[in-house]
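User: Please fill in residues for this 340-position structure.
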């Protein structure tokens, strides 16, 4: 540790749970933040300030004005420019701590790229908004023996749980199947920035404990809290389930296949299309679409406004079709304006 680092992290080093040895471990660690929204932007900011050596930021979405109420790394200019969240977060983090290596990936986490994006990390932070991605993270983390920290929040309620392969139950043990029926989302139930900050803080606390060599001391509990009612409840995390497909039977079904089907995005009235890789020249596409409607583009994405729909297209061919949750309609719009 350099004298400058020792000074910068001095208040953290003074904490008996970390000390110089713990700080050295933080400086040598690599953490992936999957999802850079309300939870993930907090994770990234806190871990960068704590001195994590490398942060890998993965997010498939772009910044909108409605994000600014709770997503901690973005400002009005990011929303005005429709910046990909991972790129905007990387820029903000470099201003916060220029010594931390930050790698932004404006991409969807899939079975095809998860090994490349998450390989070799010390820990994975869950900032996602859907069980499909969480099950994918869980399969990879269990297979590779990488700890990860699950978290979720909506309304004024949230919960978090550490997953330490071989020690705690994994996500598949606790939730063998995703919740069924209509579930509240940020769009239908709203969300308070206090609950996202609270859940993300608990996740970061567990992460720092694991990264500084105190993983065995992490509480094996599922923590649930409601910042409106003030109720906090904890239940003991179950032991690993021998019949669990992931950590018990070592069957990683969510890692199979190479591409996802189109999915409706949680609370977004939008569908993501990403069925195959198809590099797209955004400049050529801009010229094709401008006669048909308003287009806004930068080097990271192109937005095409076709009321009541809005198409955001990324260079790898992925698109977010806003204004519908109908996968068939989204596919039709994609084929009509981008190509099949």
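Assistant: Residues filled in for all 340 positions:
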């Amino acid at each position: 540790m350099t004298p400058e680092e020792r000074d910068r992290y001095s208040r953290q080093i003074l904490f008996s749970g970390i000390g110089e040895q713990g700080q050295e471990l933080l400086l040598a660690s690599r953490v992936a933040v999957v999802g850079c929204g309300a939870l993930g932007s907090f994770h990234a900011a806190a871990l960068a300030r704590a001195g994590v050596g490398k942060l890998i930021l993965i997010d498939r979405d772009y910044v909108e004005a409605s994000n600014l109420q709770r997503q901690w790394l973005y400002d009005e200019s990011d929303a005005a420019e429709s910046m990909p969240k991972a790129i905007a977060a990387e820029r903000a983090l470099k201003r916060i701590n220029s010594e931390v290596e930050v790698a932004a990936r404006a991409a969807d986490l899939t079975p095809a790229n998860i090994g490349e994006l998450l390989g070799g990390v010390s820990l994975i932070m869950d900032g996602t908004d859907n069980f499909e991605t969480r099950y994918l993270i869980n399969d990879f983390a269990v297979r590779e023996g990488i700890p990860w920290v699950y978290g979720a929040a909506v309304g004024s309620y949230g919960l978090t749980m550490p997953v330490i392969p071989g020690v705690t139950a994994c996500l598949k043990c606790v939730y063998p199947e995703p919740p069924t029926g209509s579930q509240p989302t940020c769009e239908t139930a709203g969300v308070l920035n206090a609950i996202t900050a609270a859940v993300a803080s608990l996740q970061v606390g567990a992460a720092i404990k694991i990264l500084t060599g105190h993983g065995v001391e992490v509480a094996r509990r599922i923590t649930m809290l409601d910042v409106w009612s003030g109720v906090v409840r904890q239940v003991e995390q179950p032991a690993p389930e021998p019949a669990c497909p992931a950590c018990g039977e070592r069957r990683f079904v969510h890692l199979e296949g190479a591409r996802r089907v189109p999915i409706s995005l949680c609370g977004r009235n939008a569908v993501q299309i990403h069925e195959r890789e198809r590099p797209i020249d955004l400049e050529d596409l801009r010229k094709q679409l401008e006669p048909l409607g308003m287009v806004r583009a930068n080097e990271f994405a192109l937005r095409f406004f076709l009321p009541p729909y809005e198409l955001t297209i990324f260079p790898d061919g992925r698109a977010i079709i806003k204004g519908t949750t109908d996968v068939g309609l989204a596919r039709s719009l994609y084929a009509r304006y981008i190509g099949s």
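For context: The chain has a mean pLDDT of 91.
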